[in-house]
Amino acid sequence: MSEFVQTRVAKRTGIIILDRPKALNSLSLDMVRALAEVLASWRNDAGIDAVVIQSSSEKALCAGGDIRFFHEVGNATPMGGSALLEDFFTEEYALNHLIHFYPKPYVALMEGVVMGGGMGIAQGGPDCGIRIVTEGTRMAMPEVNIGLFPDVGGSHFLSHAPGQLGNYLGLTGLTIGAADALYVGLADLFVPQAQMGALKELIASTPGAQLRAAIEAFAAPFKGQAGASTLEAKREGIDRHFGAGSVPAVMDSLVKDVDAFFQKALGAMRQRSPLMMCVTHELLARGAKQDVAGCLRMERTMVRHNFEHGEVLEGVRALVIDKDNLPKWNPASLEEVTPEMVERFFKPVWPASAHPLRHL
Question: Taking every annotated instance into account, which residue ranges of this chain make up the domain Enoyl-CoA hydratase/isomerase (predicted)?
Answer without folding.
Answer: 14-346
